[in-house]
Amino acid sequence: MYATTESLATTPTAPGGRSRWAALYTLCAGMLMIVLDVTVVNVALPVIQDDLGFTNSSLAWVVNAYLIAFGGLLLLAGRLGDLLGRRNIFVAGLTVFTLASVWCGLAGSQEMLVAARFVQGIGGALTSAVILGMIVTLFPEPREQAKAIGVYAFVASAGGSIGLLAGGALTQAISWHWIFFVNLPIGIVTAALAIRLIEKDKGLGMGRGTDVPGAVLITAALMVGVFTIVSPAAELGWTAPRTIALALLTLTLLACFVVREATAANPLVPLRIFRSRNLTGANLIQALSSSGMFGIFFLGSLYLQRVLGYDALEIGLAFLPTTLVMGLLSVRYSEKLVMRFGARRPLIAGLVLIVIGLALFTQAPVDGNYFVHVLPVLLLLGLGGGICFPALMGLSMADVKPEDAGLASGLIGTTAEVGAALGLAVLATLSATRTESVAAAKPVLEALTDGYQFAFAVAAGIVAAAVVIACTVMRPARETEPVEEELALDAA
């Protein structure tokens, strides 16, 4: 399943086995900073709203400005890593992200914070787009690659845990401004370690893939598409003239991009990459699962805050079991599951657990008890995510040539971010619409809960669609089937 081709001279390498793992930890530190920022901001949103005077609708731009830049530039950033050198793009992204984080922390107005978050999204895209591509080229052997991806998934989950706790603690003890300042030491240390531990790679050169029209088209399409989802669709409705016009513009830009890539001598995204059923299926699954999971964490936080009365720190502690379970499975057991059963079966099993958890969340009442109505859901989401996401990461890079690793890495990141934006907008809109429709007949808390329950049910259906794709599109890879020697080694 995993790429087994030896790393080319154009890919980042490390001189020895121990150095390779040190390089991995450095890459994971960069990912930690990105994930940390997402969860920290979510916990602090109510305090930011009160301090800077955001309305309920304008507050979403603290998240949306980041998503638009991040989702719009991921694919381009991944390809730039292939062309200009992945280490160069990684370090450049860290620099932009770190400086923008300081800007966010210093923000004293709505406009300043939203602008800084947009720039932060640019840095996040440059940083994260090339990480997975560097990992698969650093670890071409299947067993080591599975373990490395498990560590990567664990760090992403652990970052969520740290962000939940740090966001609540810093916001309540000091100020929300400090949730952004924490990125400064992480960014400086990670950039220094990356320069020291990861050998500089030449890249293919701009002459091997320079496609400025294609880059402009896909970046514009993704940015307009994400903007359509998070702004007019969420605020005015899906059938509003402005929403429809922007959606048509997005589709037109995408169509022009496909035509361009099919005819360009050196396309930004060679369409041949989609001949792999596993790559295409993995990206569809990533988009759907991100839609369900991201939207539910956002709405779940609102349920805990508005219905059950939790504060920022309590929300962080409430969601901690999900990220801890997901992280433990990712680093301890995901590699063994993939090597024992292949990637397809753990992927399906994990997605099914997520669907069950989301379905249970539809029963959360107004007077819900955390240990009865919330904790079982969060444990199922953690179990499902810890089992399926490392397998999905591996499948997304299956059979990818080393020179296309950055592109494939950026692609899976793009589908995750676009899926997250879509899920957040769709589920938040459906929840608000449902609440408004029953508000006249029910008390406020019951109307809110009814809206959240409806959104949870829709999220379960979205992830169920991902299960169908996993069962029908994804193919088991013989390379990951266990052999007698591996089983004997595990037994020993």
TrEMBL record:
- Matching PANTHER family, A to Z? BLR6921 PROTEIN, MAJOR FACILITATOR SUPERFAMILY MULTIDRUG TRANSPORTER MFSC
Residue intervals passing through the bilayer: 21-47, 59-77, 89-108, 114-139, 151-170, 176-195, 215-234, 240-259, 280-303, 315-334, 346-364, 370-395, 407-432, 452-473
Query: What highest taxon heads this organism's lineage?
Result: Bacteria
Do you know which PROSITE patterns this protein is assigned to?
MFS
Could you tell me which InterPro entries the record lists for this protein? EmrB-like, MFS, MFS_dom, MFS_trans_sf
| GO cellular component terms attached to this protein's record | plasma membrane
Task: Write the protein's name.
Answer: EmrB/QacA subfamily drug resistance transporter
Q: Which residues form a coiled coil?
A: none
* Ranges where the Major facilitator superfamily (MFS) profile domain occurs: 23-478
Subcellular localization, as worded in the UniProt entry? Cell membrane
- Which organism does this sequence originate in? Kribbella amoyensis
One Gene Ontology term of the molecular function aspect: transmembrane transporter activity
Topology in membrane: Multi-pass membrane protein
Q: Which Gene3D superfamilies match?
A: MFS general substrate transporter like domains (1.20.1250.20), Multidrug resistance protein D (1.20.1720.10)
